[in-house]
Structure formats: structure tokens, C-alpha cells
Amino acid sequence: MTKVPIFYNALVSKRAKKMTLYSSQPSLAVSTTNINATASASTATTLTVTTPNSFNTILSSNIAATISTPSVSVTSIVNRNRYMIKTNNTYINISDTYSVSFGTTLTTYKNFLTKVFQLVQDSTDLSSYRIDSELHSLYSLDYSSTSGKLLFTNNWGNGGSSSGSFPSTNGYLCFTYTAGKKLQVIKRYSYDTSAGEDKYTHTLDTSFAYANYYVKYSTSGLTLVSAEASGSIFTILNSKMDVSIPANFNPIPTSYVSNPSVSIKDYVSNTITNMQGNTPGDPNCKFVVNFYSGSSPIQSVAGYYYAYQIKNAGFDTSTNGTNSYANSMLTTISNNVASNTLYKTLRYPTSVYQTFRQGALQRTLKGNCVANGDIGMYTTPYVYFTCEQDDDGQYHPFMCMASYSIADKPTRLLDVCKPPGDGGGSYPEQDVTRQATLQLYLHKIPMLDYGVVNNITGSINYGPSSTYYKLGEATTTGIYYGSKTIFTKVTTAGNDYLAVISDGDPYPAKAGVNNFTNDLLIERAWPDVPNPLTEQDFEYKFRYRGGTNTESKTAFFTAFGIQGIFLNGVALYNPSSGSGTVPGTTISGNDTYNLNAVFFEKQYGIDDAGGHPSPEGNIINDQQGQYHYHDPMFLTSGSWNNTTFASSNAYFSSDYYTNDYGEVDYIRHADGHSKIIGFCFDGYPIYGPYGYTNISDSSSDVILMTTSYQTKTVAFTGRPYTYNQVVEGTTYSYKMSAGAFLDDYEYVSGLGTLDDCNGRYCVTPEYPSGTYAYFVLIDENDDPVFPYIIGKFSKQARTVTNAGYPNDTHNSGGSTTPTTGTAGVFDVSTLGVSRYVSSTTEILAYNNINNNDMHNATLADDFIINPTENGNWSNSTDERIIRSISYNNYNYTSIAGIGVIIDGVSLYPVLNNTLTTAQKSAEVTNIGIHVGQGMGLHYHADGYGAKYNSSTGVTNTTNNLCLYNDADYTTNTKHPPLIGFGMDGIALYGIYRSNYSTMDGYSVPLDSFGGHIHGNYGYHYHAHTVTSSPPNNNIDTITDGNPNDEPTYNVSVLMKGAWKGYINDIPEFWDSDHGSHKQYAPEYSLSQKSKYVWGYTRA
Question: What is the pLDDT of residue 846?
Fold first, then answer.
């Protein structure tokens, strides 16, 4: 999956009210202790809520002999398998100080896990292996030149969160296991300090003097000896602990990729300091409250009013400890919300929130497996409750979790077959993510019962007018809609057409000369243009020829007015300004030669996007002032390439290019190829400036397309000015050099990568079997290059009809909400191109959904598990087939976090950003987790569910190392454990097991959102399993030429990606700028505050 950026937004949607509710230290009203709660209710059903055992509890638990007893010894090693190593009737063990120790005790999980090691094959010598600790996966077996003994050193982290340095003296040994059962050291790798600060690599240690030595055991440790006879005999035994990737987590199966791991050097920082704050009274104080010698709190991002709930990390049950104040706040919350007039109750009893808080705060990191983590640190240091009023006096309580987003147990990221890449180039060239680092999250879980939706169309609204509608109509005032641009593919009489409804406004792209903006507030104006921007209200319809290569060339430069349309509804004009006179000059063209409007851009009053409204006398759709582009400056000026524009549609926000400096280009795919930016009216797509080097190979390098036009050495006959002549104007003077007229250029076949139409037939990410496509032209300095967009000819005849927009609402003052296209950027899925699943006209039936803020797929189980959802498939004749499905059932709420798990790790949807299950893509570990490009952990799937066998009611293997485990059922037989919350405030519980059929709610079916309601539990989600069904439409998802070998597998769902909870009335919930719920970070200073999270915006 592609990189998903984290956005932090400090906008407050409602004004703060002055309050005195917490003007002093809260009084204590509840007991100072808390346990997993059992809350009695007035009905017959008792609400029983427990949370999963922490890894700390698991480590001290007894382990079953069926696991702890090793199996038979092995004579050869299998790469990345787990083994126990025995010598002289004792096992090699990693101690708490990472030295080599020995022991035979296998009573508890800790006894066992300290004796389990993963053997990892050396990439240059396939017969040798390094030895990594299973419990402390950052540590590998090494040699100390000081002690002369073997020990474990940190090779894959920086030594903890408070350390800014990397272990420059550390390294690891590579061993072979000889026929004589000896461990022979072949080589040593050491940390490479010469690679620079931005790298974290190992290199062969040429100074290591003990290559080919043998390992010798003594009670004091392991040493190296030169003679094989002096080396000890070691027995290597298979571990019976099954931590393998379940078959359902790699159903195709996908081979293990050997790509290098992303260096963590760029991703580690002093995160704990950011979480815990600075000097008392510092206005840039971070998160945790600061005290003056134990007196009253001075400042914290959490605010004075909630500071007592976070003065200590973890579950603090001391006298007047944080638990006391949290429980007191829950009592206050219950009393306050009872006075609301709209939402008067909490979604769940306070005991549910107490239980979850305790479970979250009791989790500490027990395995050294996070690159900059510290053993014993809390995965979620702080959980506190807030209660603020909106303008109407309604209370809105939240449970806030400040977490590092790390699991408390080993996550075994090295096992993932195909982890996400770093976004640089196509996947085969990318480094991949196999290391986790600390993150900083502040999750805000709503506690009010805002209700649930009956279907997905009621789930999300457009947001308040202040964040949706544009203000001002160019130089006039009044409220009117943002771009209404909708692209729809329709079929008439066997021919495909594109129907484009739009108002022609460039928003959400930046526009305007004086104020180049898309902020919805500042007037966009073109002082040198006689006409203001005027909405056009058009409905153009033209032949769609994407994926074809037919030709009937038609002159382009001599046709005036709109010749195509860009994805934001802006008109495409050719570069000619005809025979008119350049404003403020005496320069003019005539009927035989035409001026180049781009050459005289300043005189024509264009903005930084290369656009302006049509000049006086140019009437389009019975109106003047049609905004249009002549050249591709809108791509290089930041008009399109910004988060406001990109987040308006998943096509731009979910798959984008990041260069070596971390700079993002939303108008390019992750492999660097440009995205579609518009269509010429001949039906062929227009791309940005980057394409593949090889027209038929999508794995080839990406380069800037180049022109096949050049200026003529000798001026054309009849040219009114010489190349050196200077003409004075009222504002500018122009040297009439070659290029001032379109006729100054000539086409030279083969000079560049493009033809005389400025396009070529080639493969693209959207058309992997090929299409004719135009490419805009820029040079290395981002300056436009002639012929800019379309050449002297278009590839096909441009035939278009204009029916006019059916409902002219742009002057309605915002009284009517448009049905779709809110942010005006083309949804590629409506065209059926292979990056997303296709559709016909279903998108037009979408009601009250901000389609540009989410992906859309079907919610029903028979579609969510169907491998055709990605749509990027071919049939047996290698022709790309696009599957059309309904779009009105599934709310892909965000490609980022949609919930939070008990350990503080973010929960992502079961589908990844290509609408494919992360399981099928072989992206997750055996517990359903992986790291994205920001090196942050997040869950996609239910690892415990993947081990669970629904036919027998038991797990296929019991290892107690998943998010929740068997013990969470045997110790509580009333209901599956509470494992997380959706960001809509709805609780998430574990899977139902058939051998615990007496559990509350077992017989109540789950709905299409993956939840149900029973007893006093309120509506809640459950992890569940859906069996996939191969498609019956001859679609080959494996792309091996055989559509009959599609995998059938169990999809282990935590959350599908749709919120059942009604979110429209949750304050500060939706971040429309970035297409996700609002996310906050504890390290942000008080200037980045949210009233409902921090309580610091009171008047």
C-alpha cells in the first residue's frame, strides 16, 4: 500500500463558551480502584466487559507443554524459521541484559520465548544464517572483542527513545550448521558509519579475525575456537510455537520479497520527550502537565481542566491518582449529558470506558522490537476523559488516548512476504518497511450516543458551509457552490461516451492573480481581464476512446474556445490567441499566422496556474468569463499539487509519488508516472509530463516527455517582426524572438518522445494494455514547453455536445446540497480505469456522501471478499477486464486509521488503498499488523481470527501471541473481549467462537457493518471471518493467465471500513481537507489545540 500522510488540523467548528465547571481541582466522587467491569443492568442481561490479557500477563503465564517441548532436531536450516538451540543438555537463552545465558526451565512464556530464535539467511551466502532473538527481535547474536564471548547486540534499532545515536560498534555473526552439528562462524557484519546520517546499514567487518572459528560452550558463556574438534555440539530443534504467516494471510501465495528494508534513521526521534513536555510554564509545552515543585499544574496541551487525569503515566491507583480523577470525571460527564436536549445518554455505561482505560494503561512494551522503544514503556501512557459544551450548550464527552501506537509484544515484521514499500518508484525498486518506530497519536473517541445509520448514505455529510462553499463569485459577492464536476462513462448505441457535468470553476485548484488561493475565503480576481470568472453550468458529452489507438487527425491550433476539459472542470484552450491584438501593445496576428498566447501570458493577465477567464467578446454557454488553461503551469505552480486539491479525491490522495527528499507529488503515481489530468474532446486522456521510458513496459524508468517541435532557424515568410526586434507595450516590452507565433515552430518526427499531436500510444498505470494519450510538456526547470498540451493536431475529431447543466444552482446561496463531486476532482473509478474498480452511472445516485473523501466499494460480504474489487485484472487473452459494481453501499471512511486498538495501535480497514484485502496482498504479519511508509504500526486484519477454525470451534494453533488469545475466552465465558473502538465511538469486540456458543449475543447475526446489538451491550462491532468466493466471471486476479485458480480464503475482519455510528453531529470530527477524521498529535504545542480534546479554547 502506498504512503498515507498524517494530517493534523486545529480548526474548531464551534465557538467555545466560557465555563467554570472545572475551575479548581475536581472533587473525588468514585473509588480509587478499577477492575474489569461487570455492570448490572435493569434487564435480565448483565453487561460483562473484559479486555485481553496484556503481554506482560502472558509472559508470566504457564505455557502448555505441547508448545514448550521442542520437536525433533533438524539437520538443515529453513530461512526465517524459529528454533531452539541446545548444548550440554541446556538451552541457549537471551538474558534480561542481552547476554548469552543458559537454562532448562520452560514453565512460563518468558522462559520459553527467551530460548526461541529466528535464523535469517545471509543474502550473499545462502548456507549461513544470523541468529535473532524472538522476544527481542532487534537483537542478534554477536561477538564481543572485549570479553571474547558471544552476546546479543542491538542491530535494528537506535538503542531506545532517549538515544539519538545508533549502535556503531554493534554487529552480528553469520553461522553455518555443519554436518558434525557444530556452529561455525563464517563472517561478521558491523554497523556502517560511513553511509551517512540518513542511512542505517551493515557492511562486512573485514577486521573480524575469527572467521571460520567454531562456537564452544562453557557454563560462563559461548566463546570461539579455531579447531573444529574443540567446538561444542549443538542440537537445533524446531520450535513448536507456531508464529508462521497463516495461509489465509497469503492466499495466492506471494513469494517473499528480498527488497532491502527502509532505513529507520530518518524515522526515529526523541518521541518520549515530545510526549512528556518541556520546562514548566513554557508556551511551547508539549503534552503532559508540568508542575512547580508539586504545586498546581501550570500548562499542558491537555489543559488545566484535565491535567489531573494525566499527571502520571499508566494505570495509577494511588491516593488521588489519575484513576481517581478519571472516575470522577466520568461521574461528572454522566451528570452533564443528562442536561442535553438532543443527545442525553452515553453510548455505553461508564464501566465500559473504565474497563477499556484500565486495559490500555496496563500495557507496557515487553519485547525489544520497536526501533526506538524502551522496555517497560507504556504503549498508551495516558487515557483521559473530557467534557465540553458547544455553542448550544450541549455537552460532548470524549475518551482521549495518547499513544505511541506500538504493540506490547513482538510483531514479527520480518516475516511479512510483501510489506509496503517506501513509495520510491515502482515496487520492485522500493525499499520495504520491516521496522516499527514510535509514533505519537491522540485518539479522540466520542462517548455520546449519537445513534447509528440504517444505511451508508446517512453516514457522512458535507460539513459546515464555512469549510465547503466558496465565497464570492470572482469580483462579485455571494455564496455559491464549489465545483460540481462529475465525470461519468455512459454507453449509447454500443459506443462509450464521457458525460461531464461541471460549472467550470477551477476550485479546489488555486486560482486568481492577486490572491492565488483555494482557501474558500479570499476573492479570486484577474484585474487585467475585463471579465470575472463566470460559472458555465455545462454538460458536455463526447466519445470516450481510452484504451484505443484510432486516428483521424484534426487541426487543433485553428479551433478556438474549449477543446477539452480537465478533471476539475476547467476548459482546455489551444495556445493560440488568434489574429487579435495583444492587450497593451500593437502586436497582432492575422488570418495566416497566429500569436502564441503563452508567450504573451503577462499581457493576457493569467494567474500562476496559467489560467484566466475568457476575454471580452468570447462568449461560451451564452456567458463570458470561462476560466481556462493554455499550458500546464497549473501542475508546476502548486495550483493542483497541494493537500486541499489532492484530498478532494482518492485518485490523487491515495497513490502518489514521493521523491528522495520526501517531497510529495500528488499528480504522479507512486512509481512516478503522471496521472490523468483531463481529456481532449476527441476522447483520449491527457496525462501530466511523466511517462515510462519504454512505451510497452510499465517497469521501465520514468522520464519527462519531450517535444518533437522546434523553433525554425529562419523566420516564416510574412512574419511581421524579426527574431531580434523589440516591441514596447504599456506595461511590458517584448523581444519578438522565435516562439512569439505558433507558426515559428515546426514538427520534426522523432525529435522527442511525442508525435505531432503531442501524444503517443503506450502503457500507463490506468491502461496497462495501452492507450493513446496526450502528455503535457515541461522542462527540468518546470517551465512549459511548446506545444504545451495538444499539438498541431488532435489524434481524432473533436465532436462534443453541450446540454447545459440540468439544475442551475450556483446562485442559490447554498440552499441546495449537490449530490456528488463536492470538491470538483474527477473520480477515476467512474471511468473504469484499472487503478480502481469501474462503475457506470451508479455514482450519480450517491446521496449525502462526500465521494471525494473516500474510496467506495461494496459493503456486502460477498463483495468485500471478492478478489475482483481491485479491478486491476486481466483475462486469459491478456485484455484488461474492469468489473462494475455498485458504489452506494460501502463507505471506505479513510485509507488511514478508522479506529484504535487496546494497545493504542491504529486500526485500518480490512481493504488497503487499492481496494484489496491486505491479507490477499500478503502485507501483514501473523497477528494482522504491518508498518506503513511512516514506519508506524497499524492493524488491517484479525490474527486470532486467522488461527481460529470455525468448523471445530478452536484455534488451529495456540500461541497466545495475538492481539487477543484463547485465555481471553477461558477466563471470561460471557462475551468476547473488548479489543478497540471505531472512531465513531462504537466498541469493537473479538470474534465469536462456536465452542463458546453460550456467550451473550452469539446467536444474533452481524449486520453488513460487522456489528449487532443485544442485551445491554448497545450496538457494537465484532471481529469476524468471511469466506471468500472466487469470481465466476473469468477474471484472472492472479494474472497468471488462468482464471480458474483464484484463491478461496478466509478474510479475517476487524473493521470493514464503514462506520455504523452517526458521525455528522460529532464536533470536530471530519477533516474535509484531508479526507479522514481529524487526527491530533501530543507533541504539538498549545497553538494546535482542540477544545473537545484538550479543553484549552475556552473564552
Answer: 22
pLDDT tens digits, 1029-1057: 554 444 344 444 555 556 778 889 999 87
Q: Are 678 and 686 in contact (CB under 8 A)?
A: yes
* CA atoms of 529 and 616, how far apart (whole Å): 8
pLDDT exceeds 90 at position 59? yes
What ranges do the domains of the chain cover?
Answer: 70-239
Inform me whether the pLDDT recorded for 48 exceeds 70: yes
Residue 190, C-beta contacts closer than 8 angstroms, at least 6 positions apart: 169, 170, 171, 202, 203, 205, 208
Residue 105's pLDDT is 94
Closest by Cα among 463, 310, 348, 48 to 985 = 348
Asked if residue 630 lies in contact with residue 598, where contact means CB atoms within 8 angstroms, the answer is yes
What value, to the nearest 5°, has the Cα angle with vertex 511 and ends 510 and 515? 100
For the segment 580-605, the average pLDDT, to the nearest whole number, is 81
Distance, CA of 576 to CA of 590 (rounded, Å) = 12
Would you state the cell numbers that stand for residue 326, as one nine-digit string?
A: 478519571
Residue 208 vs residue 581, higher pLDDT: 208
Range of 429-438, 818-827, 909-918, 1060-1069 with top mean pLDDT? 429-438
Distance between CA atoms of residues 948 and 966, nearest Å: 10
Mean pLDDT (the chain, rounded): 76
Q: pTM for the whole thing?
A: 0.63
pLDDT per position as a tens digit, 834-852:
222 122 222 222 222 222 2
917 with 928: CB under 8 angstroms? no
Amino acid of residue 258 = S
CATH level 3 topology of 70-239? Trefoil (Acidic Fibroblast Growth Factor, subunit A) (2.80.10)
**pLDDT given at position 240:** 85
* Lowest-confidence pick of 91-100, 646-655, 887-896, 957-966: 887-896
Beta strands in 609-764 (DSSP E): 611-613, 627-629, 657-658, 664-665, 676-680, 685-687, 690-692, 702-704, 709-711, 726-728, 733-735, 745-747, 759-762
Distance CA 687, CA 863 (A): 31
Give the list of residues 6+ apart from residue 12 with CB closer than 8 angstroms, or none: 1068, 1090, 1091, 1097
Handedness of CA 727, 728, 730, 736 (dihedral sign): positive
CA atoms of 402 and 980, how far apart (whole Å): 14
Query: How far apart (Å, rounded) are the C-alpha atoms in residues 297 and 291?
Result: 5
The pairing of strands 978-982 and 987-989 is: antiparallel
Residue located via cell numbers 486568481? 512
Report whether 599 contacts 585 (CB < 8 A). no
Best CA proximity match to 624, nearest among 536, 684, 521, 545: 536
Instruction: Note whether 508 and 644 are within 8 A (CB).
Output: yes
| pLDDT, tens only, 108-164 | 999 999 999 999 999 899 999 999 999 999 999 999 999 999 999 999 887 666 555
Query: What does the radius of gyration of the chain's CA atoms come to, in whole angstroms?
Result: 32
**Contacts for 54 with CB less than 8 Å, ≥ 6 apart:** 359, 362, 363, 364, 408
Asked whether the predicted pLDDT for residue 873 surpasses 80, the reply is: no
**Type of residue at 778:** I
If residue 286 lies in a helix (H) or strand (E), which one and from where to where?
none
d(CA 215, CA 219): 13
- What string of DSSP letters covers 191-246? E-GGG-TT---EEE-TT---TT-EEEEETTEEEEES-GGGSPP-EEEE-----SPP
Nearest by Cα to 813 from 474, 466, 481: 481
In Å, what is the CA distance from 311 to each residue of 276, 277, 332, 657, 826? 10, 11, 19, 42, 49
Dist CA 340 CA 809 (whole Å)? 36
Smallest Cα–Cα separation from 703: which of 668, 656, 677, 679?
668
Q: Which residues of 169-183 are buried (b: 16+ CB within 10 A; e: fewer)?
A: ebbbbbbbbeeeebb
199-235: b or e for each residue (b if 16 or more CB lie within 10 Å)?
A: ebebeebeebebeebbbbbeeebbbbeeeeeebbebb
